[in-house]
Amino acid sequence: MLNKPTFSIVTCTWNSAATLGDTLASVASQTCGDVEHIFVDGGSTDGTLDMIAAYQGNKRVLRDVKGGISRAMNEGIRHAKGEYIAHLHSDDYYFSNDVLATVAERFAADKVDWMFGNIQVLKDDVLQAPHTMNPFSYQSLAAGKAFVPHPAVFVRKAAFERVGVFDEQLKYAMDIDLWLRLGAVARPSTVDRTFTVFRDHAGSVSSANKIKARQEEFGVRRRHMDKAPLAFGMYCLRYMKRMRQLRRDG
């Protein structure tokens, strides 16, 4: 293994023993083996740390990292040595064993700072159909129409040095804030195939506190409205409609 691997995969854990096995197996099975796997643990008391200790991959373990998910992800970035960084949480796993090989080939061909593929959602043990991937533009991102699935995003480490890391004050929309910063300076490459399976369950941050999440997302998008004011106006209309629906459903 090179001192500077191609990929740094950051996995944040906290009492994740029920799902972590799939995450570990999906990374270990990748045909591109030039990987360091960084685990950022928030103080697990189940079998999570034992599973990580038994894992044979090239790994680093950061223990008892407190302060929320944004800080945990940032700690992984700060310790990463790889050229490309991805966050694969302990709920999620790569869809096939050639995901990293595909990503490496596309980075080499497209010379971009970041890229993303698609995800499929696993809900109630049923794998849902993938989302439709629409053409990317900064305007569509600012309008909330471009779908950038965090578990399927890969970022060149130098790009984090350019635009910064996740805002640790945010609980829900830290990824959207980062994509808006990245998208303003670098167009991503997109790959219309499933990279990652995302588990949707009652404990998922994205599934709980939906109104608070939408409110935080609005504040994040308002930060960046000067880069695409018309697109932000389009987003506002969609935001009001969604909030009315959420309040009716609640």
TrEMBL record:
Gene3D superfamilies according to UniProt: Spore Coat Polysaccharide Biosynthesis Protein SpsA, Chain A (3.90.550.10)
Pfam family, one: Glycos_transf_2
Domain spans labelled Glycosyltransferase 2-like: 8-139
Cited CDD domains: GT_2_WfgS_like
InterPro entries registered for this protein in UniProt: Glyco_trans_2-like, Glycosyltransf_2, Nucleotide-diphossugar_trans
The protein's name: Glycosyltransferase
Species in which this protein is naturally found: Massilia agrisoli
